[in-house]
Amino acid sequence: MKTIKFTLPDFWASALINDDASGLDDDEHDQLNEWLLNVKPGHCLSVSDEYKFTKYHDARDYVLACDCLEYIFEVSK
After folding, report:
1. Do strands 3-9 and 44-47 pair parallel, antiparallel, or not at all (unpaired)?
2. Which of 37, 39, 40, 76 has the largest CB neighbor count within 10 A?
3. Of the candidates 1, 16, 26, which has an alpha carbon nearest to the alpha carbon of residue 58?
4. Element (H, E) at 7
């Protein structure tokens, strides 16, 4: 299985790992959905425990600087 790592907002974690977007507000939900539609990353397998604040992350076209985590996704076929 091939995987890919993304640095993404920490507030997306529950939506990506648990498929539970109930903690996101409407704007955050829209940003996540737009990122998923454009990037098509596959299934999220894991997320790191340690966050870092960064301006330059893999969702910077959708979300401003924020606390981010490292996410591992299965590569879509």
Report:
1. unpaired
2. 39
3. 16
4. strand 3-9
